[in-house]
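Forum > Structural Biology > Help requests

Title: Can anyone predict the 3D structure of Anti-sigma factor?

Hi all, first post here. I have the sequence for Anti-sigma factor but no way to get a structure on my laptop. I'd be grateful if someone could post the structure tokens.
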Amino acid sequence: MRRQPPAKGLAGVDMTDDAARRRIGTRLASPPLLTDEDEAALQAAIAADPDAAELTDAQLARMRPARKVLPPALYAALTRRRPPDAAD
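Reply #1:
Sure, ran it for you. Structure tokens for Anti-sigma factor below:
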């Protein structure tokens, strides 16, 4: 039987490690704060990605709510609440 790779939590911690799970708890933990170096590297990567352009004020002004532009049946299907166990 193949072994699954360790499951990583939000903080990038191996969640199969019992000690790490006890430190973080079983609930979602807040991700660790970025260091200034990490933040600078992240911002540089975002700036270098042509697909990650920020929206302009004109683009934001043209946006309309989904409920006003989608067909009612599609909007209802996309916003329907499902039981938590059915979300998987």
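The chain is about 45% helix and 0% strand. The helical segments are 18-24, 36-48, 57-62, 66-69, 72-79.
Shout if anything looks off.
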